[in-house]
Amino acid sequence: MSEQFYTEITPAGFGIAIKQKEVLFSQQSEFQKVEIIDTNSTLGKILTLDGLMMTTEGDEYFYHEMIAHIPMMNHKCPKSVLVIGGGDGGTVREVLKHSTVEKVVLCEIDGVVIDACKKYLPAIAGKLSDSRVEILVKDAIEYIKDKENEFDVVLIDSTDPMGPGEGLFTEEFYTNVKKSLKKGGIVCAQSESPVVNKEEIKKMYNLLKKVFPITSTFTSPIPTYPGGYWAWAFCSINVEPLSYIDEKRCEEITKTCKIYNKEYHSARFALPNFLKEIL
Amino acid sequence: MSEQFYTEITPAGFGIAIKQKEVLFSQQSEFQKVEIIDTNSTLGKILTLDGLMMTTEGDEYFYHEMIAHIPMMNHKCPKSVLVIGGGDGGTVREVLKHSTVEKVVLCEIDGVVIDACKKYLPAIAGKLSDSRVEILVKDAIEYIKDKENEFDVVLIDSTDPMGPGEGLFTEEFYTNVKKSLKKGGIVCAQSESPVVNKEEIKKMYNLLKKVFPITSTFTSPIPTYPGGYWAWAFCSINVEPLSYIDEKRCEEITKTCKIYNKEYHSARFALPNFLKEIL
Fold this sequence. Notes:
homodimer; 279 residues; alpha/beta; Spermidine Synthase, Chain: A, domain 2; Rossmann fold; five-stranded antiparallel β-sheet; globular
């Protein structure tokens, strides 16, 4: 190929290829290699960490609308929200659409990610400057240890279980996250690709089920993630998924979304047989 | 890359890359270049036509279970089924799971596709030898012209609207398909990627809506298709989608499927906002 391509091939032996224009930013941070690449594609600019796709301007809403609105809409009045990881700011942007929200804490270990996204991906990171947002450049594993009864919703918007995100996939961490929840609190965590990360999913849900009385799964397509199909965990102490959807908030937020609506929300929890078997 | 890759880059500027082992079969037929490639991936062997992914051993069920079971299960007693295109045999295999089926006509224009799949992809094409299957190596546009009141379900398992499949995306063709339906008949057609084929989808549904009083859309992920996310049209004269699901058949068939189940079926018709806008 005479053209240059960004390629990401999973251990399953297949993956994505994107026409590459130029690398706009490349820095080895304390934790990982952070890159912003401009592409010759409808995906626009993309963020990668250690050569793994994190987000693209073109399809980021497939991910961010799901991790934010499915748990947020299932909470009766989410005021205090913690986003772990998510340094690109996309999840925070979606969370802030909920009029109930008074405070969002973003706990991201790598300040280089935040700065690069603010500069190169303003449509995704722009809301990080909102006055309701507190940004902590910190290890969430340490941060969460002494938190009790603080958050209505905790969103674990992490990288994969390999690399800097590894400690975010442990029983100890999940136990601390549970402790940080207010009454009626909900946790949502990205839980990898049902197509190429079957073993990782199994391991993760075994831990989550040990910690949370209610652990459910929802899925949705993501064009640029491995397998084109992604899963998230919905966990809580006593709130069943789909037990509540705030009609008024739902209607308002649907108007601002490219994916999310009430029917699409409900449909997320219908899983294919092969995934049910894994779980 | 020192390894060899099969790549398929869409006009959107991104696509799939698969570790390639060897080309097992390559022939320029009267209509298209037919290739079977063995891969170094969990996808196993793949079929491509004119360099476009048609099916893989590893993820074929994501497509075939949807195009077959969503319409079939919505029909009270599908006895006579026509599959247009679909020379790999995967759709026929799924259709035959329905105990009501007495006859399946496969009308595929390219005999080279059928022969290659029988030889190299027996897990997909194996049921083409079932006694209920009649294989016609014919242009479906001609075949359908004089058919009236013949089929309970017609499945248009075509290639893209460019190339040999082009004539399968016209008002005249759809009108003839409608005429071929028995009372209560249902048509299901693959309708491209909502992520990368937005214009094609718009055009196709405009035609379908002219012809069929009931035209609906369902979607599901497909790892190896452009955008990882696919749409199908559900059309009929008087049968609404989800107006009926045969409980007993559904239970039986779910046991044989990797994806399909009743809840997953119902959830398919909840569409993301951006696709609703296109339609």
